[in-house]
Amino acid sequence: MDDCIFCKLANGEIPTEMVYQDDRIACFKDASPQAPVHVLMVPKRHIASLDDLTPEDEELMGYMMLKIKDIASSLGLENGYRAVINCGEDGQQTVKHLHIHILGKRKLTWPPG
Fold first, then answer.
1. Hey, which of 6, 20, 53, 60 would disulfide with 27, CB 3.0 to 4.6 Å?
2. 38 is catalytic
């Protein structure tokens, strides 16, 4: 999608502090961190939200879920972390590009909000 900020970040069109990337995903630091470690994992292919997934996205989503532990380990989150996907307006999804928040390095509270 031409005007999607996460597409532009993931594809290097806008500079960001990249934590990890490969041919399918990008993981970069959140611009408004809510924890000492707060990164976003996004697919490089534009998918607007969880509600827009199709059966063809099953392998990509499985790949992303398995990659979370590797990213968390590389960020030193050995004492735990939270992985969050917001979906839709009530879910507080502010950017219409599927993304996973990975947060850690502090005791996270529950319920989150």
1. 20
2. no
